[in-house]
């Protein structure tokens, strides 16, 4: 049986590289969380359930270098702030809710992730469901969303593509 030192050496170099570079905490200069629109998901109401409603879910991808995007339990801070716009005569107009019930569904709280260590980069998906989107009384909509971390750094304002409610 012939034993070659070359494949063993390559394996050791790969293992050394993984342990040396794969376990370091990533240091990055960005204080602000990153937010990107991923897609819409529309679910029609269940016709067999009278309390069921249509739901339009906004799906975002996010990343934060410090891992402090989530709000601790018990705090009332809404750190995902979404504004609704509707198209009127070819122009986008910001929707102003007639009462706080409608405006509250557009501001949401991203919960704290308990498994993170301090300054650990976090990436993930945020789903923001909007129930009864037809209740806004418009048919062509889009959203603008900002994500805040615990210390108040904000992502860039994200503008979603338009969505036509059929």
Mean pLDDT: 81
- List the helices and strands in order: HEEEEHEEEEE
**Percent helix:** 10-25%
Strand fraction equals 25-35%
* N- and C-termini, Cα separation: 71 Å
Tally of distinct domains: 1
Instruction: Give the C-level CATH assignment.
Output: Mainly Beta
Number of helix segments? 2
CATH architecture level-2 label: Sandwich
Question: Any idea what the radius of gyration is?
Answer: 22 Å
Can you offer a commentary on this structure?
With 166 residues, the protein is mainly β. The protein has a single domain, classed as Immunoglobulin-like, CATH 2.60.40. It contains two helices and nine strands; from the N terminus they run H-E-E-E-E-H-E-E-E-E-E. Strands 3, 4, 5, 7, 8 and 9 form a six-stranded antiparallel sheet that branches. Strands 1-2-6 form a three-stranded antiparallel sheet, with no helix packed on it. Strand 3 and strand 4 form a beta hairpin. It is globular and about 45 Å long. It starts with a helix and ends with a strand. The N terminus is likely disordered.
